[in-house]
Write a structure and sequence with these properties.
globular, 14 strands, 12-stranded mixed sheet, two-stranded antiparallel ribbon, alpha/beta, Rossmann fold
Length: 469
Amino acid sequence: MGFATVLFRCSVFLLLLVQLFSAAAATGGSYSRVKYLPGFSGPLPFELETGYVGVGDSDQFQIFHYFIKSDANPKTDPLIIWLTGGPGCSALSGLAFAIGPISFKEEPYNDSIPELLLNPYSWTKKSSIIFVDLPAGTGFSYDTTSSAFKPGDFSQIHHYLQFLRKWLVDHPEFITNPFYVGGDSYSGMIVPVVAQKIVGGNTLEFPIINFQGYILGNPYTIRGSGDNFAIPFAHRMTLISEELFESLKTSCKGKYVNIDPTNVECLKHYKIYKECISNVEPACILDPKCPFQSPKQQDIYDRRSLNSIPNLLINQNSSLSFRRCPEYKYKLSNDWANTDQVWKALHVREGSIEEWIRCKNRKDYTFEIESVFSYHVKLSSKGYRSLIYSGDHDMLVPHLDTQTWIKALNYSIVDDWRPWFILDQVAGYTRHYANNMTFATIKGGGHTAEYTRRECSIMFSRWISGESL
């Protein structure tokens, strides 16, 4: 153990003693061990805790979370707090669809509880993960008052930091673990800000967090930029013709967001472009576009809730719905998470919410941050580790968008563009920079890890262990 590590742990220990003898140490967190889940056969083969942490000036907001200990060595393995995108998509999305240890068995069923399966590609094999329902009001989180609170970027960041420090005070055995913040999709606008504030707060706030870096999948980074890169992406993927692409570049001058209403030529070509891609699933262009009706009309969203989608297109009970349409598992999650048995098993507080909704309506959210590029600049200058990855068939936040802002950081390349492999097969491409940032593509991947769970798991496992992809 190095001198710096010993010094860090001693500092944490001394501060912890002070905190434990302080009246301010009482955070009022509520935590419960979950040994069984409805739909899963037998006891859970991993350690799951659920609970609430109060945030806000008077703990007005009770933030629900799922905490899963590492399968390997939770005493020393990294601790990750994972934020699902949306904004307003439940943490269950990350836990059951993307990087967590469970999955829904996608098959028809008759009014029984949907079956849960073990995910062999869970990131909890090498790390402990907190999946948190943020912003306030997401998933099982709730407001204890009847106030007309409208969540936004800044309130979400503030609550995120409050939640984290209170949770760590209540779980002091994890304070010295290497700590990472992570998320996908819209959380790309939240995670870098949180990371920077953790670093700055470590000199003033308790507890000291052993921050090591951050992880982002297909991250929203500069508002509107993804939409701008969707057209060159569509061109590269042959979704539009060479002629249409050239016409768009000429008439729109490379800017396809907030088009000048007087630019008739640009609008004309843009309309043709929209018609060309209208039947393509933007979250993963390899998948069929087959949305179905959500139980509540306000909650009709695409895969990650970035764009609204049409109403009922398929029969939920047809073989098509579960054999070809990834949306079917979202229906299963709704049916599973809205049963009395599940609420009891997860220790959801009675009367706290009326109904669990996977992704809340974004009309109730205030979008305040235009770009987090400057936060990447600050974090990069300090050399913190970062893993930025992109499914190469995502058109919501195309890899072209992510590669452009990474290039703008202007760091030299340490390990140049090359394929990375799984069992001698190309799983994607990667590049490593002098600022300790690794960028990777996932071949055939979509907007989140749910489309390529195996590949993303292996990528993460190598990176978190300090290995080359």
